[in-house]
Specification:
Layout (H helix, E strand, L loop, with lengths): L8 E4 L35 H9 L3 E6 L3 E6 H6 L28
Antiparallel strand pairs: 1-3, 2-3
Length: 108
């Protein structure tokens, strides 16, 4: 985060990866970013668990999720405000489902 400490982070995640894998897709090749596009498939972004692990390394905890977004706050801020700290086992909610119809039953 390059020295910044936002009070709230909101990020999208790929619900198609499910809730038990900490995975992300391969980055676009440097210098060819404009030539690589989403192929209308299920392979994009990162799983909720990958985003949770990443933000925890910077002192953030998840406090809310829906079918595409995760919201994080700094742990010290949550404790100072006497917030209830949810278990990471509760994310993502609602329970993961296939977001795109061609992702049903997808095995990676």
């Amino acid at each position: 985060l390059a020295g910044y400490k936002p009070r709230v982070l909101i990020t999208e995640y790929n619900i198609n990866f499910g809730s038990e894998w900490a995975v992300s897709t391969i980055a676009k090749p440097v210098g060819k970013e404009e030539k690589v596009f989403w192929q209308n498939d299920c392979y994009f972004g990162a799983s909720a668990l990958a985003m949770i692990y990443l933000t925890q390394a910077f002192g953030y905890i998840p406090v809310f999720s829906n079918h595409v977004n995760l919201i994080f706050v700094p742990l010290d801020q949550a404790l100072a405000l006497n917030m209830q700290i949810p278990s990471v086992d509760n994310f993502p909610k609602p329970y993961p489902t296939a977001l795109h119809k061609n992702c049903t039953g997808k095995t990676w």
